Amino acid sequence: MSQTPRNVKKVATKKAQATKPAKRAAAKPASAPADAKTGYAAPDAPKPREFAKARIAIVATRWNVEIVDALVAGARACLLDWGVHDKRIHFHRAPGSYEVPLAAKLLLESGYDGVVALGAVIRGDTPHFDFVAGECARGLIDVQLATGKPVGFGVLTVNTVAQAVERAGPGVTNKGYEAAAAMLEMLRLRKELQ
């Protein structure tokens, strides 16, 4: 009569347990309910001094400057609201939206923790809009993937000036504000994973 040694049973049990799929932690629900109109749930509020030492660049285009400057004001307000020290927020201009990806890459490579990219591309009568808007967006994604650092996308791509003005208004619905908040959320994730 043969018996299986106890240690063999233990090893077999451990192997069986190791092949069971690990229980995944449930996704943390959004801290705030989603906005009824947009479906957007606001991110968790920053912890005190969470971003105090972050070095952030804002790069903004020279085209449609009144609209872009309103986006800059929104981005700056967000950064300050989230606790980024005023002296650690630096502002730079790019000639246009097509040049923003390179500006963002140069800024990130020079030591910034994140960049907020701002501009306003308004559709005209030619396909120029499609080329500029698409390449700017694609370029900024490439910059993030190449550097491993976050870029907040606040380059408006709209059909009319009125649409741009609406998206550059005061408050947390300002697309500059939203772009800065998105960049800080990704900066938070990057720090959590390091």
From TrEMBL:
Extract the GO molecular function terms from the UniProt entry: 6,7-dimethyl-8-ribityllumazine synthase activity
Q: Does the keyword Transferase apply?
A: yes
Do you know which InterPro entries this protein is assigned to?
A: LS (IPR034964), LS/RS (IPR002180), LS/RS_sf (IPR036467)
To which pathway does this protein belong? Cofactor biosynthesis; riboflavin biosynthesis; riboflavin from 2-hydroxy-3-oxobutyl phosphate and 5-amino-6-(D-ribitylamino)uracil: step 1/2
Q: What is its EC number?
A: 2.5.1.78
Active-site positions on this chain = H128 (proton donor)
Query: What Pfam families does this protein map onto?
Result: DMRL_synthase (PF00885)
The annotated region (Disordered) lies at 1-44
One Gene Ontology BP term is: riboflavin biosynthetic process
Q: What does this protein do?
A: Catalyzes the formation of 6,7-dimethyl-8-ribityllumazine by condensation of 5-amino-6-(D-ribitylamino)uracil with 3,4-dihydroxy-2-butanone 4-phosphate. This is the penultimate step in the biosynthesis of riboflavin.
- The protein's name is 6,7-dimethyl-8-ribityllumazine synthase
Q: What is the lineage of its organism?
A: Bacteria, Pseudomonadati, Pseudomonadota, Gammaproteobacteria, Nevskiales
